[in-house]
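PROTOCOL LOG
Step 1. Enter all chains and additional molecules of the complex.
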Amino acid sequence: MSLRHAALGLLSEGPASGYDLMKLFEVSLSNTWPATQSQLYAELGKLADAGLVDVVAEGPRGRKEYAITPEGLTELRRWITDVEPARATRSDMLLRVFFLAQISPERARGYLHRQAELSGKEAERLEGVRGFVESGTDNLSVYGRIALEYGLRISRAQQEWAEWAEEQIR
Amino acid sequence: MSLRHAALGLLSEGPASGYDLMKLFEVSLSNTWPATQSQLYAELGKLADAGLVDVVAEGPRGRKEYAITPEGLTELRRWITDVEPARATRSDMLLRVFFLAQISPERARGYLHRQAELSGKEAERLEGVRGFVESGTDNLSVYGRIALEYGLRISRAQQEWAEWAEEQIR
DNA sequence: CATTGCATGTAACGCGTTACATGATTAT
DNA sequence: ATAATCATGTAACGCGTTACATGCAATG
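Step 2. Run joint prediction.
Step 3. Record the structure below.
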């Protein structure tokens, strides 16, 4: 039920079309909450039906510009403050760890080594993104940088864990 | 497509019924890959159709004991070594961060404070689990402890991030 | 004999992914 | 002209959740 709130959240910064939102997703939420175009268009339709957004303008090529309604803003705030974030995080990377006894110790170490590398690369990638979004004083940029810091810290922690884990296997 | 491999992985340690597997899930994989009873029974049926597991015994109350087949073991190993783990991790906790400008700074700090607390509690809970599974020399216990260490490190990192983030908001 | 535990399944619904389908407008 | 970009949608399929349905066997 969170794509709904992701869309509401982006619209809380100003009106936009589905197409605009899709681009916004790519540069902001994509690492936190990936969404596909199909999904987004469908969700905008449902949001409009529910009265949480309105179509405020229609442009060329059938463009529909959506704006959040007062009810939508209320719902967004309610979701932020009153709904407990889900705890369950599925990780197929970690799931494999449980079954490493089924492959040779060499391969198992190889697996963990590769995960350490991937996490390291991910951290570097995020450092790059940080350089790119350093300016930007709009809400999404300001809080996006806080979210980015999260990604960085988690990636580094994951890398260190994988390096540690690799050494545990003898 | 990972519940399939979770089931294969558990069966690689020995034959078990759906009911047994469900209990095993609860004490081992539940933090990494939650699964419901419906889902598991359905998946066992599909695995049997695909020849990756066999029904090796039928007991009282319609109990069916499943065992992994050589093909199943091959598939499990292929999945571990040849299939790249998914990178995308959705986090509705982090998604909310992007939209914190929509609530007051006090509330925003409150949100982050609460997340720090929750992560701290989660870390403590995992410390407790660690005390509980310290012995245990079977594969699942050995690798489960490595997975547990992951959860611990990530929880601590998350806690520290949330504490840091709270201070960023003025 | 009643409760608890063992044991398996079905049905409905929503979210997410992939692929497909269509067409208008702008820039070169 | 034609290619790139803008722009919206539909359809099929799979995974995951929740709720429901059923019944046997062991324990006290």
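Step 4. Note key features.
Chain B is about 65% helix and 10% strand.
Helices of chain B lie at 3-11, 18-27, 37-49, 70-82, 92-98, 105-132, 139-168.
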